[in-house]
Amino acid sequence: MTFPGTLDLSNEALRYELDLEKGAALRTFGLPDGAEWTSEDRPGREFAVFACGQRIDGQSAGLVVLGVDEQKDESPLSGSHSVTVKLRHDPTGLEIDSHTIVYRGTPVAEKWITVRNTVDEPVTIDRLDSFHLSLPLDEWQVLAYKSDWGAEFAPIVTPLRDAFIAETRQGRSSKDWHPWLTLLGSRGDLLTICPMWSGNWVLRCEPEEDGSFAVSGGLHDWEFSKVLEPGQQADSIRVVLTLGSGGDLNTVSIPLARVGRTHWYPRNELSRSLPIEWNHWWSYEDKIIDERAFLDNVEVAARLGMDICTLDAGWFGPADGQSEWYDYRGDWQSVNESRFPGGIRVLSDAVHGKGMKFGLWCEIEAVGKLARLANAHPSYVARRDGESLGYLCFGNPQVREWAFGTLDRLIREYRCDWIKLDFNLDPRAGCSCTDHGHGAGDGLFEHYYGYYAVLDQIRAKHPEVLLENCASGGLRIDLGMMRHAHTTFLSDTDWPEHGLQVFWGATTFLAPEVCLHWSYSEWLGQHPHQKFKPNDPALLPHQFDFYTRIAMLGGFGFSQKLPELPVWMLERIGYHIEDYHLVVRRFILEADLYRLTAQPEREGKGDRWAAFQYRMPEGNEHLLFVFRLSGAESERNIRLRDLNSDSLYELTWLSAEKVHTIRGAELLERGLLFAELAEEDSALLYIRELPAASRL
């Protein structure tokens, strides 16, 4: 068999070349006019497999190239170039397929491996690194995000001088760290790495003998092992590598969003409509929500022009008003008749009768300590060393069948248009049972592949239903999940500076339309920063507009006692809903997003101004959100991006009687001065390029 000595996957936005002379090595990786990301002296080893007491990588002795499969999709807007290098490691008899996809017109590459056992006895895999890159010598910085409940997307910036590891061992992808790491070179070169996985992952930056660094990772090897029987194979998780320049994260996030929209994100008619949501949770929880309260909110939501009403936790379980929802997760066949005497279909029919969609919360993976499900089906429960982990093992085919049947029934019987899928616990290393269809060391690995399969099955059976990903808010946000769910909830908490911080962080790898968050909510419970009180006499309209517009940056929702809001506040909500429907929505769905300021941070830290520019693909229309946070300097020049310097632009302030015409060069170089915004104030501008005749 003959095959080329090199494989060139380059495109107009990326240099990417593989050397197959001795195994598989990355020869060239960089932007067309940018720096080289591979070391001249140490070729990238492409991947690593740890098995049979050996490390096997793309340069290991005894590795033989068996062949190459190559596919090119020449579609102008959604093309890609895919290559699979087929290898055999003679000392172990393992076959390894190294997969790479480069997306047309972007600096985005997706990598993973498949390992196949071709010998006559079982082989144990202890580690699967989806990629390995040897960096050239430079003064590198690492950018990453720490994460916890209500504290998502906390930025870390540190020089790379010693080993640096970003990881989660919690079993949820964005608990402890978000699955995102960026290397920044001394000349502004950027490499962003995103594991596409919802469980445990790791990214390692490790020093080499010559002072340089190697970067590798993918699935976390902590407590992981997988036994491959003869003829069996396993895929590693996928990892996305994206290059940027100028020290500007927009150069990375924009191509990632474009590829997500074109290749990764599931879409349906409802998700493409970006529905505005009301959800009962924070203002009612499961303490005071009932049929009457829900229906009263439905009446107001319909008058305001909202699109969907979602019933969150508290609808299921024993027929009393005192049960704790957490204890009865899994008993989805029951309805709390004390709170909802007419059943759930009464609520759904009322919502549909008002021309809106109906949403329902479900934690399909979890099993509460008092749930009848655990006693009826003890083999469904994920256990480690015999102890229940509080969730159902989706590595078990019986659980997958049950979960699909349960969700299918909820959707059909309650006429659900939206399912909010939550997950409120940390599986950590996951299930170690050996009678579920997985081994002792790969329970969590198989759980997530099983969960993805159920989501895909539901979307196939109910293509019109929108699936929302949630995990204690934002503790399972990753590009793996976003191949199976339509939107992801960014965080349970939503006070203003936090809302801006998490949206800024999430959009470094997600498109804005898949980022769902609510405006500043009135909480029934206590939180040191959730202080919104709608009847506070000191609360001014411009502050309420500020709170609401933060949620309008992406997927848009409310969690309020709508019938109890002041009349003026309801009028402002109606106004913002109209703005969102008529103006904002199409920009969020189609435009490139530029973060024009640094990241705001909680506790008064970070940038105290926030500005976001949405640029439509044709380049002639833009939308600009500007926010002045508490503690900000009194004025700021906001410089726009990617305009035609010779053109005139008409700027229209929404909600203000104000129109200006400014040349593109001035907006690019000097910027637009905001000197009249109060603290906790905002501006929303529609910007259009004027026709050539008007420039004279």
UniProtKB/TrEMBL annotation:
EC number(s) per entry: 3.2.1.22
Enzymatic reactions: Hydrolysis of terminal, non-reducing alpha-D-galactose residues in alpha-D-galactosides, including galactose oligosaccharides, galactomannans and galactolipids
Keywords in alphabetical order: Glycosidase, Hydrolase
Annotated Glycosyl hydrolase family 36 N-terminal domain residues: 80-228
Stored InterPro entries: Aldolase_TIM (IPR013785), Alpga-gal_N_sf (IPR038417), Alpha-glycosidase_related (IPR050985), GH (IPR017853), Glyco_hydro_36 (IPR002252), Glyco_hydro_36_N (IPR031704), Glyco_hydro_b (IPR013780)
Catalytic machinery residues: D422, D492
Example of a GO biological process term: carbohydrate catabolic process
GO molecular function: alpha-galactosidase activity
Family named by the database record: Belongs to the glycosyl hydrolase.
Record-given protein name: Alpha-galactosidase
Native organism: Cohnella endophytica
